[in-house]
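B., you asked whether I could sanity-check this one before it goes into the benchmark set. Here's the sequence:
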Amino acid sequence: MIGRFTHLSEEERAARCSLAERLAMLEPERRHGFLKMLPARFRGEFLRDWHILARPAQLAPDGDWRIWMIMAGRGCGKTGAGAQWLLEQARTPGLRLALVGPTDDEVRSVMVEGSSGILASAPDDERPVWEPSLGRLSWANGSQAFVYSGANAEALRGPEHDHAWCDELAKWARAEAVWDNLMFGLRRGALPRVLVTTTPRPTPLMRKLATRGDVALTRGRTADAALLAPAVVDYLTGLYGGTRFGRQELDGELIEDVEGSLWPRDLIERCRAALPRPGTSGSAEQFRRVVIGVDPPITAHGDACGIVVCVLGWDDIAYVAADATVSGMSPEGWARVAASAAERWGADRIVAEGNQGGAMVTSVLRAADIRLPVTIVHAWNGKSARAEPVAALFERGAARFAGAFPELEDELAGLVAGGDYEGPGRSPDRADAMVYAMTELMLGKRRAEPSIRRL
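And here's what the prediction gave me:
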């Protein structure tokens, strides 16, 4: 499992790996030499200490924060981090602590009794008394923790607490009402604090907390979890990597829908499909047509150059097949990338935007030894007007995504009916390139397909 991190640089290891993981990566002689330097009575404690075992993302940040939110993928150690933080707070005598989860049962089964929960994480001499019938944990020093449900706001109206641990906030049924009552009661002590451990979902409360400047935000990915078998991580990544579900559940990204988006996230997910196989009509060609859309940057070394490959299958469905977009290249550089994509996919046409000079774009592409036809389009109307007919193709199932294209999908999701763009970057370069290619394939005058000579 440690082998997953051996390719990292020293700086990357320091940022992502625990001290124990970094120690395990050392050569045996150096590792044994380090352990021998420790006094014998400390060696066992050293390898059990949470600050040694924890990754940096699992340790509380510095500063006088009031809210710390760990927004991370599944299995990356959120529960363990929450339990250890709660236990650390409970070492102060006489505190009242709140444990809030989606339901009472989930607080008990995950936060208290779970394999990474409070009871499993507590040292023998600090183990609290657990009273399930009362929903209460009691420590010998007088500190207590109480169970609350994210579906019951009234239970938190009145009780005061020093600190709180909130788990899976994105799943709370009455999130905002429960959160408000919790915060009103979080008023004991000099610096009341709350830790939120959650896999993200674009709920109103999650969006609000993730963008607040006074929230200490920590992110984490499932792939960073050294305790998960590499085969498990690889399997999950193979299934969900790059999809909205995978980016949310594995990479811990908070993926929001833009109001009025031409490509809502649900539409993008519904339109995923595998590339079609060659037709059964005797043709050896896999696709009817292959078109590459190109959206050149305005400046020679400026924005990205959108380069997207779209194909028309024998099933008469258009597919986004590849995103070859590049950034920071000279015109000669991005033209070579477009030429390489054309050769690799057997394209029959390139469609490029030529607002900054159609003749220049054509000459640059020709200089890259592109022999296939080049169509120059001029985007006189707005992005939305160009994109809306293409979005309608996806809506009715006439166009699909042959795989996951996270950067392209983020741009598409930011295209809003009416002409606005609320996605990443200043311009949707990838999305524009895709729109040009799809328009040529499906909405333009249908060009004659390459003929097939049979032997």
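One thing to flag: The chain has a mean pLDDT of 83. Otherwise nothing jumped out at me.
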